[in-house]
């Protein structure tokens, strides 16, 4: 899933208007992978990205950080006074 980061009209989708924060693509429209890449980069008419990827909470996989190995404490050696 993507979201618009600024206002733009999608010239390949009948000039559909997106406001900043809108989900891209709109329901019922399937853009090509090339179109998504174009809008997410500077390779479009504006010369800057107008959409960015966002994590889909239903599909996102949260990886648990690996636990650091626990080192057992060694008893400290005591020095004996003579």
Write the layout of secondary structure elements.
Elements: E1 2-4, E2 8-10, E3 16-18, E4 23-24, H1 33-39, E5 51-53
Antiparallel strand pairs: 1-4, 1-5, 2-3
Radius of gyration: 26 Å
Report strand order across the widest sheet. 4-1-5
Report the order of strands and helices. Answer: EEEEHE
Shape summary: rod-shaped
Report on this model:
By secondary structure, the chain is mainly β. It has a domain at 2-53. The chain is built from 1 helix and 5 strands; from the N terminus they run ββββαβ. It has one helix at 33-39; strands at 2-4, 8-10, 16-18, 23-24, 51-53. The strands form 2 sheets. It has a 3-stranded antiparallel β-sheet, with no helix packed on it. It has a two-stranded antiparallel ribbon with strand order 2-3. It is rod-shaped and about 90 Å long.
